[in-house]
Design goal:
Elements: E1 7-12, E2 33-37, E3 42-45, H1 51-61, E4 66-71, H2 76-79, E5 94-99, H3 108-115, E6 131-136, E7 143-146, E8 149-155, E9 163-169, E10 172-177, H4 189-195, E11 200-204, H5 223-232, E12 237-241, H6 249-262, E13 266-268, E14 274-276
Parallel strand pairs: 3-4, 4-5, 5-6, 10-11, 11-12, 12-13
Antiparallel strand pairs: 1-2, 1-14, 2-3, 7-8, 8-9, 9-10
This protein binds zinc ion (2 copies).
Length: 277
Amino acid sequence: MPPEQLTVRFWGVRGTLPTPGADTVHYGGNTSCVEIDLGQRQVIFDAGSGIKKLGDWLGRQGGSLNTDILFSHCHMDHVCGVPFFAPFYEPQHRITLWAGNLLPATRLEETIRSIMSPPLFPIEIDAFKAEVQFRDFHAGKMLDLGGGITVHTGMLNHPGGSVGYRLEHGGKAVAYITDTEHRQGELDSNVLALIHNADLMIYDCTYTDEEYPNHAGWGHSTWQQAVRLAKSGRVKKLAVFHHDPDHDDAFMQKVEAEAGNAFPGAFVAREGLTLQL
Ligand SMILES: [Zn+2]
Ligand SMILES: [Zn+2]
């Protein structure tokens, strides 16, 4: 792969709760997990249930991984796949986990330790064999992941906080913005700073504008807001992401058509979708 190429794979696109079944088989039922494949490295956004298949797939490629997992935040739908990411249990891998919304109240290692401990889970993080590092930072800081990968970060509007990311590499930019609630009639300046001219913007589209008033304060946004942001930020492609568990394939197909009419670069993220940027 030429160094300027960047591959995005969607392993989990659902929000809130894994939603398997006949009604979600097209767009997928696993929760948030997006892989950015940079050739020798991969950066993973969130470890929802979708990360299990990613870990199994990486295992089949062989070799040793040098991987960063950037958490938007630690709500269950974004961390529930952590214990099931097979590379944690193999000694040849280096995996760094990052969170930017927990300090000063708590830290990422403590948080992951707490979900992998009795009475919630049978295996503790001491069972990890890979070289695992936990890094806490304050949202707003720029992260240098090495190898020419830089990541800008910004705080989003979500209960307990959530971190938006803009990954840049080889002249390409991908923005990962979930979970976040917009203020009506406003474009969030933190979001605008992360998305401007991005090749791909992945955004929390849990609701439609019609549904939103019944869910104000729940910490999520709409696909129409995503379109307003994408136009203002002049992004090239917009991935409608973090689908509501109650939105089945038929509903999402309608969203895909409407969003595509409103913004030509818009599409609905689907589990298994690969994009070459
Ligand atoms: Zn979520
Ligand atoms: Zn959340």
